[in-house]
C-alpha cells in the first residue's frame, strides 16, 4: 500500500515549483489544473508508479469528480499535516528558508529529550496555500547516546 495525498491549490504550477524545490521531487504530469509530484529515487513499480508523493489539484476544476473542496472554507487543511521524511534534512531546511516559507515550529528534536519516539528533527512550515508541511529527518537520526 502507498498513500497518494492530494491537496487543492490556488495555483497548481506555482505550488508544483515550490514543492519541487523544497523536496527535490519532480513533475510527472504538469499543467495548470493537476500535477503529480514524484520521488525520482524510488523505483517504478510494475504498474508504472514512480514514487508518487503528492498530487496537486486546482480548486475550481471539477473534471469528472466534482469539486475537490470549498476554497472559501479556511484555513485550508485544518487538522492535516503534510509530512515528508527527507534524507537531506539540513539542505531541506536551507531550501525552506530560501523559499521564504512561514515557520510554524522551528527546527526541533522529536521528542525534545531522551529516548522513545521517532528521535528525529523536524521543521514545520506553511506552503503557498497555507497547508502545514512538516519536514523530518529519518527516524533515529537525532538519537542520543
Characterise the protein shown here:
With 145 residues, the chain is of the alpha/beta class. The protein has two domains: 53 residues, Signal recognition particle alu RNA binding heterodimer, srp9/1 (2-Layer Sandwich), CATH 3.30.720; 56 residues, 2-Layer Sandwich (Signal recognition particle alu RNA binding heterodimer, srp9/1). It is built from two helices and eight strands; from the N terminus they run βαββββαβββ. The strands form two sheets. Strands 1-4-3-2 form a four-stranded mixed β-sheet, with helices on one face. The chain has a four-stranded mixed β-sheet with strand order 5-8-7-6, covered by helices on one side. A hairpin with a 6-residue loop joins strand 2 and strand 3. The longest helix has 12 residues. It starts with 5 loop residues before the first strand and ends in a 9-residue tail after the last strand.
Amino acid at each position: 500500500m502507498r498513500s497518494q495525498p492530494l491537496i487543492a491549490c490556488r495555483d497548481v504550477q506555482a505550488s508544483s515549483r515550490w514543492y519541487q524545490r523544497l523536496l527535490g521531487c519532480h513533475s510527472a504530469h504538469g499543467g495548470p489544473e493537476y500535477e503529480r509530484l514524484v520521488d525520482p529515487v524510488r523505483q517504478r513499480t510494475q504498474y508504472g508508479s514512480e514514487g508518487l508523493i503528492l498530487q496537486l489539484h486546482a480548486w475550481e476544476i471539477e473534471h469528472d469528480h466534482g469539486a475537490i473542496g470549498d476554497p472559501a472554507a479556511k484555513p485550508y487543511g485544518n487538522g492535516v499535516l503534510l509530512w515528508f521524511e527527507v534524507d537531506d534534512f539540513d539542505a531541506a531546511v536551507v531550501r525552506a528558508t530560501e523559499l521564504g516559507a512561514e515557520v510554524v515550529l522551528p527546527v526541533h528534536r522529536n521528542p525534545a529529550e531522551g529516548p522513545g519516539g521517532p528521535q528525529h528533527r523536524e521543521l514545520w512550515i506553511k506552503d503557498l496555500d497555507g497547508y502545514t508541511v512538516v519536514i523530518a529527518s529519518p527516524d533515529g537520526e537525532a538519537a542520543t547516546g
